[in-house]
Design a protein that fits this description.
about 290 residues, mainly alpha, MetI-like fold, 14 helices
């Protein structure tokens, strides 16, 4: 009994230590946001600020002297929410097809689909940029400037198709048979019977998709103009010290950290609001192959 208690105590201590390691970047971002710019430009750098500069958050929220926060947030939420809705629905359709249809060569096609997950995004950025530029999709006004994301989301994403396929394959065949007896078409069976049961899988895909798109940096940097730029890019490129021109001795790191904290709020709210469904989705999408 004592041996089991000792192992449990060591496990708890290890998990606490691991949690502190993962939380340290967030802690450093918070204390850096509360420092003056010159306090981060001199050595040695203290851990805690001599006087917390809460005015940084006021300047970021109430003025555009730091960055155009609300415009960047609007752009980020627009592209993230719209693309998440599209990719969630199309991936569910593809996953339903792979799980419930009996078609020759289905497993081979599914293997090719999974193989596309091994292709790095950086490899396809250049041909995508050339194609979209020649089609004139990179200079469209808001919100059509995000058409390139909608095109990428239209066929679904391989990882989400895999999750949906695993979830739909775990549902009993009697549901499909009963719907067929009642005269339901394939699409109606999917939309009215299977999709409402896929709440955990939908939540999991929504959280992952929103996080990936919302925090994406390189693709918006390449494909969007300045007025339609997302907050993830503006946080790195456009943040400045109010009333001071950018100069090397006075970097805007505290203000970048301030905008970074505000940038993470939508992600944290989404996760905590859907945490229970997210955990259930992760646990249930791998029950049946």
């Amino acid at each position: 009994m004592n041996n089991k208690k000792g192992k449990k105590l060591l496990l708890i201590l290890f998990m606490i230590l691991l949690s502190l390691i993962f939380l340290f970047p967030l802690f450093w971002m918070i204390v850096s946001a509360l420092k003056r710019p010159e306090e981060l430009a001199t050595y040695p750098i203290s851990i805690f600020p001599p006087k917390a500069q809460w005015i940084h958050f006021q300047q970021a929220l109430m003025t555009d002297e730091v960055v155009d926060l609300w415009a960047g947030l609007r752009n980020s939420l627009t592209v993230a929410i719209s693309t998440t809705v599209i990719v969630t629905i199309t991936s569910a359709l593809a996953g339903f097809g792979f799980a419930r249809y009996r078609v020759r060569g289905k497993d081979f096609l599914f293997g090719i689909l999974l193989a596309t997950m091994m292709v790095p995004n950086l490899v396809v950025f250049l041909p995508q940029y050339v194609i979209y530029a020649r089609l004139g999709l990179l200079s469209l006004p808001f919100p059509f400037c995000y058409t390139v994301w909608w095109i990428d989301a239209a066929p679904g994403w391989a990882f989400f198709i895999f999750l949906y396929r695993q979830f739909f394959a775990s549902l009993p065949k009697e549901l499909e048979d009963a719907a067929s007896i009642d005269g339901c078409s394939r699409f109606r069976t999917f939309w009215q019977i299977f999709l409402p049961l896929a709440g955990p899988a939908i939540t999991t895909c929504c959280i992952f998709a929103f996080q990936w798109i919302y925090s994406e940096y390189l693709k918006p940097l390449l494909f969007l103009t300045d007025e339609n730029q997302t907050l993830a890019v503006q946080m790195v490129v456009n943040v400045k010290v109010p009333g001071v021109k950018w100069s090397l001795p006075l970097p805007p790191i505290p203000y970048q950290m301030t905008v970074g904290i505000l940038f993470t709020f939508p992600l944290m709210l989404l996760f905590f609001a859907a945490q229970r469904y997210f955990m259930e989705g992760v646990a249930t999408t791998g029950l049946k192959g």
